[in-house]
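Narrative of activities, Objective 1.

The group set out to show that a structural description can be obtained from nothing but a protein's sequence at a throughput compatible with the screening campaign. Below is one input-output pair from the validation batch, recorded exactly as produced.
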Amino acid sequence: MQIEIVPFKSSYLKGVLDVWNEVVIAGKAFPQTEILNENTGYDFFMSQSFTGIALDTTTAEVVGVYILHPNNVGRCSHICNASYAVKSEFRGNGIGKMLVIHCIEKARKLSFRILQFNAVVASNKNALSLYESLGFIRLGIIPGGFLNKDNVYEDIIPHYFIL
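Output recorded for this entry:
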């Protein structure tokens, strides 16, 4: 497997939707509840400041995706936010780390000053470990801040990283 992070383009849409919707359907990490289709997905991924695709260049398969966008507007628009997804059968191979590192570099190029995660779900131990290893700072715990698909509330742990 040879992974390269490339910009989103329409020819990757089906693969990106498969990766993204898998996380949405699981209901344990993303706040979104709506499945994206070809129309809504294309608009969504194109509306980001940047959408990065983890592509296995040996098979041309989309194995991961990240979105990067401002976390807020106006006087807080220098703070960005991102979400990451790796196709389940490829997790544990360092693809998530590649996505986060690429995202940090892209955020700097886009002149963002801080990368903030609003809602890292407490049970997402792999993400928490990754963010800690890369130097992200935990901001505390928001009790019951995330409603899992099974209607159980779970804590979230916001993070930030100075770019």
